[in-house]
Amino acid sequence: MEKINIIGAGLAGLSAAVTLAKGGRHCRLISLQPSERAQSVLAEGGINAALDVMGEGDKPEYHFEDTMRGGVYLADEEAVRRLTAGAPDTVRWLAELGVPFNMKEGRLIQRNFGGQKKKRTAYAKSSTGKMIMSALIDEARKYEVRGLIERFAHHSFLGCDIAEGVCRGAVVCDRYTGEQTAFAGRVIMCCGGLAGLFPRMTTGTTQNSGYAAARLFEQGVRFGNLEMLQYHPTTIGIPDKRCLVTEAARGEGGRLYIERGGEKWYFMEEKYPELKNLMPRDVVAREMYMVRRQEDCGGTVYLDMTGLSNEVWEKRLPDLRAEIRHYLAIDPADEPVPVKEGIHYFMGGIYTDVFHRTNIEGLYAAGECTCQYHGANRLGGNSMLGAVFGGKTAAEDILETTEREGEISLKEKLTENEPAEAVKVKLGEILYSGLGIVRSEKGLKEALDRLDTLEREAGVFPRTRLGRAMLESALARKESRGAHYREDFPEKDEALCKPTMAVCQNGSISVSIGETQL
Q1: Residue ranges of domains in the chain, CATH in brackets
Q2: Residue 416 pLDDT more than 90?
Q3: Which residues are catalytically annotated?
Q4: Is residue 287 a contact partner of residue 250, using CB atoms and an 8 Å limit?
Q5: What is the pLDDT of residue 240?
Q6: CA separation (Å) from 82 to 77, 148, 312, 484?
Q7: Residue 517: what pLDDT?
């Protein structure tokens, strides 16, 4: 009997596990942390679906158009169409599982999010990720007691068993005992984004090392759009990471300003009168970066939420208010909050087809570790949707196939090839220097030269290889598109409206644009 191996127990992993179990397939849910501590718990603002409960005539087609436009048409069109068409049923299913979405008079309500002209984001106050995770954890437990889902918490992923282009299983290590095990069966990677390559610089959990994705890259798994990092416009600094100030704050009426000539300048409202503070995140982050550098402006951008009503704070953003009070000793209801752009999401990742299959037979990927839904910029509210829908899609594809036979054995004990913490921090600084909000050939080549030096001094590791692929992908894209802004190529080039592909073979990295066949 084949057991499917799911690496990661966040939204994508749980969605895949529940779907497989519901279809009668056995699976192993393997993760470094229990689900309650997954990255997905930190998601705040909401999940998108064209439910049209707000009387605005919303449709999945409009959701599709906004997602493609927001991603500057770099996303996989067929995949996005499937995602947006399936979004209403996805949110209804989550509501049936018990997610306490905000309601009014017995009706689910939605709010505005950036880059979208309709109220399309369903939410559970400002803890939507935590609430969805709680519901999926409870649903998964029903199948755990029946033996259809087997939990392997505190286990780290060491690599896949790949032979002749076929994934035969996964090798994992029990972090408590040090024991290594080779699990036969197909693999669904739900290992999250690449926050670990930028220690102390992202809003992601500090437990997400990025090693699993980096190891797969080293093993020949194809990656796409690695240059596309999303800088969230509104974050605050806390020990060891950035803390997200959810986009829902602007969706509810929060306003960005900077002091210019001693007066408040609400620059987004002046420059973008239609969507104002709810322009796509890449646009807002870049505008914040630019206005801070104007000679007549102060050095700090503020998020003014003092105009929000008590009802909004109590019913829609209570957790956000508590976080800001805790970390900054500021009550955002009474005074503006200083904010800065922070690395928040990785649009680039493992390249898959619409069924979430990778270029390695028997290996799937879903969630933030993949790249097909968001293109050059992710819309707020689409990440949780992409994770839940993606995990379900991968599992459904497996359910339509027969179980595989075969066993694998652990030929030799593997080593988690990770550098010292100081090397990780240095690598993050190098990558950040080249992959900032504004980029250039000069800056990228300088970063690559510094990476060469680091590898000569400290050695070559999976994460340095993946970091090199990110820099080389940004160097190859000689245009500005979404989150990738080249000051030496400030305009879009429609000939480059194709994914950047990166692959590592025998330690050698190659990057190309437009070769999308798996």
Answers
A1: 232-344 (3.90.700.10), 414-513 (1.20.58.100)
A2: no
A3: 281
A4: no
A5: 85
A6: 9, 28, 33, 26
A7: 58
